[in-house]
Automatic annotation (TrEMBL):
The protein's name: Sulfite efflux pump SSU1
Residue ranges crossing the lipid bilayer per the database entry: 54-72, 78-103, 123-147, 153-177, 189-211, 217-246, 300-326, 338-359
Task performed by this protein: Sulphite efflux pump required for the secretion of sulphite as a reducing agent. In the presence of sulphite, cystine in keratin is directly cleaved to cysteine and S-sulphocysteine, and thereby, reduced proteins become accessible to hydrolysis by a variety of secreted endo- and exoproteases. Excretion of sulphite mediated by an efflux pump also represents a detoxification pathway for dermatophytes during infection of the epidermal stratum corneum, hair and nails, which are rich in cysteine.
A GO MF term: sulfite transmembrane transporter activity
Length: 383
């Protein structure tokens, strides 16, 4: 049997290929009995062919749960063990998703080009490095202290890979979207535009955690400086997109019901940007004096400025959290879809930022608020 051209297989990234037949005009007796479905439209090949990068958002949501359970200010031994269980589950998810993704592009290499230039599916490429970053963080918290320096250098190498992919995605996807033949309409914009950009902010925050477990001070310094660069790439660009998204909301009102939860996405760069710049300042305060970087007081300056920027970004996040909660209350019900993971990760990183502020001040108010935010996020997940 002659298979349909590969082009028709490629376009199934958006919707499954449908065979156009004129059965209404053709009498039943005249319908050929030899019509068969392509092997690419059934079984495991259909699953592989239609597997999109959006599935890595599951790693983002699951990963941030394990991180928060491990680092909450009001914690317990039982929460620690639960965080490890969820971490192992997240690694299993990621392994399966990565295997299917590699198989997809090996069997159907043309799909990658179409996916990378698609105005929606390409945005979810950022979920891959962000999902990986949550596992890097947990590996640093749980495994390095038990497995030693070898584990620290291993996870540093993984972080380098994650950072490179984040930069490629954050710079490449916006450029591809600007060079598309068919222009984009502002009314069709969603906060998903932030996904490829936020990957750099997440990698920057992970870099500060990786630097803390490295015994080589010079390598830790290089990691911190690279993380500041990643933060500088991601946060300003995310701010631009947030401004455009606010304009879209003002002119064209709320997005469709299926995309309503995307209004929580601006919490991602704001919460993770706040958390990242604070953690980088904490790391700089320790590493800079060890490596005689700039002046003696530079580390303390970076720490203080990082906290200031962090609390300002956190305050801006409160504004978007208010918008998102008000939108949810107004809309009341909206259908469940993959976009719901957009609710989990931004609220999680905003909670992490809140808890970090509480630890550094120190402030019981922010510590309690961070724990309450985590409970609010968990209740939304169950809903």
């Amino acid at each position: 049997m002659t298979h349909p051209p590969m082009f028709h297989q490629v376009t199934s990234i958006v919707q499954e290929t449908q065979q156009v037949t004129d059965q209404k005009e053709m009498p039943t007796a005249e319908i050929p009995e030899t019509v068969e479905r392509s092997k690419h439209d059934v079984g495991w090949r259909k699953v592989v062919r239609n597997f999109t990068p959006a599935w890595f958002s599951v790693n983002m949501g699951t990963g941030i749960v394990s991180v928060l359970l491990n680092t909450l200010p009001y914690n317990g031994q039982w929460l620690y063990y639960i965080s490890i269980i969820i971490f192992i589950l997240n690694v299993a998810y990621f392994t399966v998703f990565l295997a299917i993704t590699l198989l997809r592009y090996i069997l159907y290499p043309e799909i990658f080009r179409v996916m990378a230039t698609h105005p929606v599916q390409s945005l979810f490429l950022g979920t891959f490095p962000m999902g990986l970053a949550t596992m890097i963080n947990m590996f640093c918290f749980v495994c390095v202290s038990r497995w030693g320096d070898g584990a620290a250098y291993f996870i540093w190498a993984v972080w380098v890979f994650d950072a490179v992919v984040s930069v490629l995605v954050a710079m490449g996807i916006p450029f591809l979207l600007t060079t598309r033949k068919n222009g984009l309409d502002l009314s069709s914009m969603t906060a998903a535009w932030l996904l490829p950009i936020v990957s750099c902010v997440v990698a920057a925050a992970s870099g500060s955690i990786v630097a803390d477990v490295l015994t080589d001070a010079q390598l830790a310094l290089a990691t911190i400086l690279a993380s500041y660069i990643l933060w500088g790439i991601g946060v300003p660009l995310a701010m631009m997109v947030i401004c455009i998204y606010l304009q879209r909301l003002m002119f064209y009102k709320l997005p469709p019901e299926a995309m309503l939860v995307s209004v929580f996405l601006p919490l991602g760069p704001l919460g993770q940007g706040s958390f990242g710049i604070q953690k980088l300042g904490i790391s700089a305060q320790t590493i800079f004096p060890k490596t005689s970087t700039l002046s003696v007081s530079t580390g303390a300056i970076f720490y203080s400025v990082g906290f200031l920027i962090g609390i300002l970004l956190w305050a801006f996040g409160v504004v978007w959290l208010s918008f998102a909660v008000a939108t949810s209350i107004k809309s009341r019900k909206f259908p469940f879809n993959m976009g719901w993971w957009a609710l989990t990760f931004p609220l999680g990183v905003f909670t992490a930022s809140t808890c970090t502020i509480g630890q550094e001040l120190p402030s019981r108010f922010f510590s309690v608020l961070g724990t309450v935010n985590f409970c609010f996020r968990s209740s939304n997940d169950r809903y």
